[in-house]
Structure formats: structure tokens, C-alpha cells
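Page 47, continued from p. 46.
Same chain as before, 91 aa.
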Amino acid sequence: MTREVTFEDQALSQTAAFLHDDPDGVRSIFEAVDRLPNDPAPAQSFSFGTAGLRRLHLGRYRILYPGHRRRDPSRPHRTPPSQLRHLPRRS
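Result:
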């Protein structure tokens, strides 16, 4: 699955406002956002509200973005019992 990151004009304008005072912080914002397609729920982020948003903490900055549920890879996928009857039987 390929994911794409797009910036709203307002977000770019707000980020650019910090460029002169905190270029390293702005760089960390763009680096973190570049990693989101591969890791949409990094450890520094958490669910934000009920609209499926996530909030990513980066030092003094916060990034709000549409999130995706992250499945715990250590837990096996389980089929709900209501769907088991629809699965074909193994021979």
C-alpha cells in the first residue's frame, strides 16, 4: 500500500514562519512527516479525537494528521466468530 503526504497551504505557511528562528526544528518536522507513509503511527503520536486524527509530538511542535489504525504485529490477526462460518473448510 502506498501512502502520500500532502501539505495544506496554511500548514506550510505556519511552518515557514519558524524557519528563521528554529531551522533545526523545521527540519525535524519535515523529516518526521517524510517518515509517516512508512510508519503512520510513530511512538511519539497518539489518537486525537474521534475523527480518526493523530497528533505527533516533536519537541515544541505538534503535527495533526489523518491517521490509520496500527495493528500490533505481536498479536495474530483473529477472525471474528461471526465470520468463521463463512470460511471454507480445510481438507
